[in-house]
Structures are given as C-alpha cells and as structure tokens.
C-alpha cells in the first residue's frame, strides 16, 4: 500500500512523527523476554497509534486456529465473562486465509463475520491486517472502533500495515532468541557431559580400581588408603565446582520453577496463604509450551488467591518422554464445577481449557465444597503433549 493521498505536504511532519513512533514501539516490543509480552506491546502500540478502542494480535498454530492471542483495551473481568479466546474464525480467519487487509465501517454486514459470543463488548468498525514476511504469516493484527467515533481511514490502514511489517520482525526476533537459548542449553549439556566423562568419571574409575586391588590383598595398611581418600576429596571438589557453575548458568535462563515463583511474587499472595512448589526436575519445554504453562498457572493461581479462601497451595509438575503434567491444588472452600459451567464459565475456566486444547492437551478440575467436608479444596490438572 502506498502512502495515502490524504497526507498532504503539510502533513509530512505528522507522518514522520508517526513513523518514528512506530519504529520506537517495535524496538520496545522486540526487547520483551516472551512472545506473549511482545504481542501485547505491539497490540497496545497499534491501538494508541490510530486511537482505537480495542486491538489484538493473534499468532496462527498452522492448523487453522490460534496458538497465541493477546488483546488490549478490554479489562480482564470482561474477558473472563466471555469465557474463551477467539478461535481464528470469522474475520480473523479471513485475514489468516486471504492474507489481505480488511477495513470495514460495519463488520456485522460482512458475510465473513461470525458474530460475537455472549458478554462480548459491542464492536462495529474493523481494521485488520496480516503480519507477513514474504510468504510467512506470523500473525494477524486487528483493531476495532476509533475513540472519536469515525471510521478507520486509509491513513490508519497504511500506518497499521507499516506497524505489522515491523511487528513480523519483532516476533521473528523473539522466536529466534528462544531457539538460540534452547540450542545454547543443549550445547552446554553436551559440554558438561563430556567434561564429566573425561574428568570425574575417569577419576572415579581409577579410584575404584585402586580400592579393588587393596580389597584382594592379604593385608591392608591403613596408610595405603590415604591416596584413595585424597583422590575422592578431589573428585568431590570437582563435582561441587560443576554444580556451582551450573547454578550460575541457570540464573541466565529461568527454569519453570523460577518462572512460577515470579508469577506468585507478582500476584501479591496474602501472608495467610502458604504456596509450596515441589522441586521440578527434568522439565524441558519448548518456548511456546513453556509460555502456555505459565499462562495456565497464572490464571489458576489467581483464582485460588481471589476466590478459594485457602491456607495452602501446592504446585507440582513432571515431564516424561511424551507428556507434561501440571498439578495445582489448594485446601480452600471449593466449589461446584458443574454450577460454574451453567453460569457461563466464571473464573476464566473455559479460557484455560481452550488454551490447553490449543496445545493438544486437556485441563480437568476436581473440587469439593466445604459442605462435603472433611475433604475439601480444588485441584487443577493440566496434561500437555511434548
């Protein structure tokens, strides 16, 4: 799309100012640590750029649906009432399939629109563009309803298309960083494995041979054990050094356990609630799955803190060759899950179920209310394929 004719020569300073804003915004977004934060920053910047009421950025999963969806302009209570994230249908699906911008004065009149679920805010005007680099679709950026009540203009479309072009680079950048971190971790594991084999294991093998010779001797002088004890002390020192170095490196790449602790710190847990995270070993998720798990945990923990009246939360996770499991339980007052479903999906539970399904997994909830004592509380159980 060419620069709109609506920009006269006198408007060029405004145009340059807005382009500078776009560049600064993308640089700021690209500096985020996670893909979700990048998407949220980009959507928020696009909304401010053209004065829209709502904005969102979705990332396709390659199967006709959405892997990530971040929105701005809508409060969390309203989002929870809606009950689920968009699934990549309607106008979002049209952008995904057609890979062309869509600008509408009244989206309900377009045959591609699939309407809104219950509790969704009223939206009328629509501007959506694909986030592309070459033939690769990184996402769909869309906005609804300008704050001044006017339709989206050709200027707005040009600015959002320009933003989308830069956004693709920001998204690709954070995905590349995640892959680099993963490769670095794998390479570091290989190096440590070689060091352990060539150093510590060989030393232990030599000590073992020496002790075996002493065991088969007719008599053993205690002084003859001194070299073996000294060598064992040296090996223990080496192992301690490896452990300390590993801990130092782990601080550079956060583990799931550390990320969950960060989530808990941000949720402002009251002093009357004790959160217990069981040790999590052998967890090695892809960046996409890692972020999904953190988002699911954040929603579940937030529900407990706000609604359960619990004294304890227990968090555990484990990973096998084919599956990852996350368990979050509390000793709170509990609730009737079937009643929540009848009420339209409060507590954001359908949203959590949909997020798990987006990654090919399941989320189940068991809860026993106080009237069913002595056992009471709630357990959220998430299973995801790896």
Task: Give a description of the structure.
- By secondary structure, the protein is α+β, with helices and mostly antiparallel strands.
- It contains 10 helices and 10 strands.
- The chain has helices at 12-30, 35-50, 76-82, 90-98, 154-216, 226-250, 256-266, 287-308, 337-342, 349-358, and strands at residues 52-60, 66-72, 102-104, 126-133, 136-146, 274-277, 312-319, 323-330, 362-368, 377-385.
- The strands form 2 sheets. A 5-stranded antiparallel beta sheet has the order 2-1-5-4-3, sandwiched between helices. Strands 6-7-8-10-9 form a 5-stranded mixed beta sheet.
- Strand 7 and strand 8 (323-330) form a beta hairpin.
- Helix 1 (12-30) packs antiparallel against helix 2 (35-50), helix 1 runs parallel beside helix 5 and helix 8 (287-308) runs antiparallel to helix 10.
- The protein is globular, with a radius of gyration of 27 Å.
- It starts with 11 loop residues before the first helix and ends with a strand.
- The relative contact order is 0.09.
